[in-house]
Amino acid sequence: MATSSSICPITPVWRRIIGMRNVLAHNYDGAAPRIIFDTVTLFLPDLIRLLPAITAEDTDSSAPSA
pLDDT tens digit string along 23-45? Predict the structure, then answer.
C-alpha cells in the first residue's frame, strides 16, 4: 500500500494538510479563521489540480500485479 509521502514527493505539503485536519478535528475553536480562509483560497485550488494525478498513482500502486 502506498503512503501519502510515496504518492507525492511533496511530503511537507502532506504534513501541513494532515496538521490542518488535526486542528479542525480536535481544536475547532482554536483554529484561526484567517488561516482557514487563506488555506482554502490560496492552497486548495492547487491541491484540487493535483488530486487526479495523486489518486491515479494510488490506484495504480494498489492494483494487483499481472
Answer: 888 887 888 889 889 888 988 88
CA 30, 32, 10, 61 torsion-angle sign: positive
Fill in the DSSP letter of residue 31: S
Distances (CA, A) of 65 to 36, 57, 60, 61, 62: 41, 14, 10, 9, 9
Give all strands (DSSP E) within 1-66, no chain letters.
Answer: none
- Residue 43's closest CA among 10, 1, 66, 9? 10
Contacts (Cβ under 8 Å, ≥6 apart) of 11: 4, 5
Residue 64 gets the label, from left (phi > 0), alpha (psi -120 to 50) or beta, of: beta
Dig out the grid coordinates for 16 from the structure: 501541513
